Amino acid sequence: MNDHKALILDEVRKYHQDVQTGGEFVPGVTEIWPTGAVHDVEDRVALVEAALDLRVAAGQRARKFESAFARKMKRRKAFLTTSGSSANLLAVSALTSQRLQDMRLRPGDEVITVAAAFPTTVNPILQNGLVPVFVDVELGTYNPTIEAVERAIGPKTKAIMIAHTVGNPFDVVDMARLATEHDLFLIEDNCDAVGALYDGEPTGTFGDLATVSFYPAHHMTMGEGGCVLTSNLVLARIVESLRDWGRDCWCEPGESNTCLKRFDYQMGTLPKGYDHKYIYSHVGYNLKATELQAALGLSQLDKLDDFCATRRRNWRRLREGLDGVPHLLLPEATPRSDPSWYGFVITVDPQAPFGASELVDFLENRKIGTRRLFAGNLIRHPAYADQPYRVVGELTNTDIITTQTFHVGVYPGLTDEMIDYVVSSITEFVRARG
Question: Which residues are annotated as catalytic?
């Protein structure tokens, strides 16, 4: 590092101290956000240093992050993407590749999922001409049971794609076993659950593919960004091709002839020797992240374990503080799991003398931020009115979630004082209404 650059980065550290906005927490005045990113001085320095290097397209930092994150998640390959949503799109699209031959998914094939989901878990199924098959979830864990998924398997079923809801793992060991028994692919949407464990192993390591989001609401952030992970090298090559314009070449940008036979290929009906850097084996996208995002990701990755530990602590403080409050169904960890919580989910008993909307309004008026459990029942939204899908069983709990469920925050930017104010506010509201 030259002296001028070192001087600039030293000034960045001073600037960071100048703009820190801690301040005293004032109940009812200070915003308590339901989600948010936590950045420190090293994050700011990492972004500025990457900007000074003026390598904006994905390069050395992106490759370093992919290697480090794959190791962290115990997967052989990780591919940075523009978002968790595009990671989901790539994961599903990979299963339609002709390279999978008879195993590939074709239009009309079915993928089992849940309607109590964030839209981008389901959207890639539809965007690839596939048919989502919806099953209900349990209240408390907000995940489907193995029995519900097994009942949904039909002759056209080719895959299962489910999220670990709000960081609480579904029964992924038995889900992976079920997928193997029926020759189905399993995609774990791990966007809300980085750091979660099931039977002591990280979520995201049980399926054929897993996806992660680095949006500010999640466990670590790049601002935007996401990742696809797999240990299947065939799927890894397909994901990389689809992410990088659909090209057949695997040279990094700025590199040429990594395979040492750039002008020796004959593919499709192209003439022999056509430049391999411009041969396309998939109808792909450009969904690569940037070097600046990777720089921030590397800095955040160092803090991931601490972030997850704080989320768990905040969740436990809420759970213990609200235990025994009537009319509220509090969240429960799935058996055999150690969740890495995204939020603290509350369902108001449908027989309660108040509704979830009333409680949400009360909290919002006290500057306590809330969020619904994503889409509630996704198929009740106008976007899905004319879309093909199949429902197995009744979506009874999913409909309860639509009207009676919300979550408050557990992210690391919240203090004990804030958490206690959330607890006391909810308790006060419930007691005032009997």
Answer: 218
